[in-house]
Specification:
By secondary structure, the protein is α+β, with helices and mostly antiparallel strands. It has one domain: Gcn5-related N-acetyltransferase (GNAT) (Aminopeptidase, 3-Layer(aba) Sandwich), CATH 3.40.630. It is 22% helix and 29% strand. The protein has an 8-stranded mixed sheet with strand order 1-4-5-6-7-8-10-9. It has a two-stranded antiparallel ribbon with strand order 2-3. It is globular, with a radius of gyration of 17 Å. The protein binds coenzyme A (COA). The site of coenzyme A (COA) has 22 residues, from helix 1, strand 7, helix 4, strand 8 and helix 5.
């Protein structure tokens, strides 16, 4: 199935002039804070062919952007297990990539992130805990999963854009609440977007270290 490519104008607009964009055939009002300050770019669903690029992007995002929040030992222990790609999301078509367009032929992936209709709260294919059972949109919160921005492209609105894209897609699948296991690095962004802290979680790592993550949640805006 062909998914529509989502394209946004790069300029910041006043909230009054909110444009609209379309993803998953759902029209989403686009508040001004979702407008990255970037050249031409688009968001699309990730494909299997993107997987090697995503592994590399996630590793550099973790090593550089999380360096103020976690020690080198925590990062070594978490990469590839707690912090990494869950290819189930790619297979489920709930994982997105943001691409910068240098020309019609030259595009590079600069950020990724997804959501899930399955119970797993966080972690890659190789995480110790995997809960592939499906959630019930009527009673469960959709999981927001694995948002990673390339360090060269941070603080330009891409994390916000991917979060909004995931929330919209989960909402169109019937979910009314969202939940995540956030890294310490992600907490300021998620708080800004209305998420509340539920509880801290200490994740045991394979090298004997422990990684603090924060369970956060919010209700969908109606
Ligand atoms: C967390 C992350 C996804 C944020 O992505 P981003 O594209 O830089 O975020 P945005 O540009 O959308 O940020 C929007 C606002 O959130 C807040 N924010 C984002 N990152 C922040 C940080 N590191 N420290 C403080 N505030 C931050 C700021 O208010 C920011 O607005 P500003 O840049 O105008 O001050 C990115 O830092 C990242 O990939 N980190 C490593 C991977 C990770 O930990 N991901 C979270 C997984 S749960």
């Amino acid at each position: 199935m062909e998914w529509p490519i989502l394209k946004l104008a790069p300029t910041v607009v006043a909230p009054r002039l909110r444009p609209k964009f379309s993803v998953h055939s759902v029209t989403i009002p686009l508040p001004s804070y979702h407008q990255p300050v970037l050249p031409n770019f688009s968001v699309r669903l990730a494909t299997e062919a993107d997987i090697p690029t995503l592994h590399a992007l996630i590793e550099s995002s973790v090593r550089i952007l999380q360096a103020d929040d976690y020690t080198p030992a925590q990062i070594e222990g978490a990469l590839g297990t707690v912090l990494g790609l869950d290819t189930q999301l790619v297979a489920d078509q709930t994982y997105f990539v943001a691409e910068i367009h240098y020309s019609s032929a030259a595009k590079i992936i600069v950020a990724c992130g997804g959501w899930s209709k399955r119970k797993t709260l966080f972690g890659s294919d190789h995480a110790a805990v995997r809960e592939p059972e499906f959630l019930d949109p009527a009673t469960d919160a959709a999981k927001i999963r694995a948002i990673f921005v390339h360090p060269d492209w941070s603080r330009r609105g891409l994390g916000t854009l991917l979060l909004a894209t995931c929330e919209s897609a989960a909402k169109s699948a019937g979910f009314t609440r969202f939940e995540m296991g956030s890294t310490l690095t992600g907490v300021p962004l998620y708080k800004l977007r209305g998420y509340e802290v539920i509880e801290p979680i200490a994740v045991s790592l394979r090298n004997g270290e422990s990684l603090p993550v924060i369970r956060m949640a919010k209700s969908a805006e109606r």
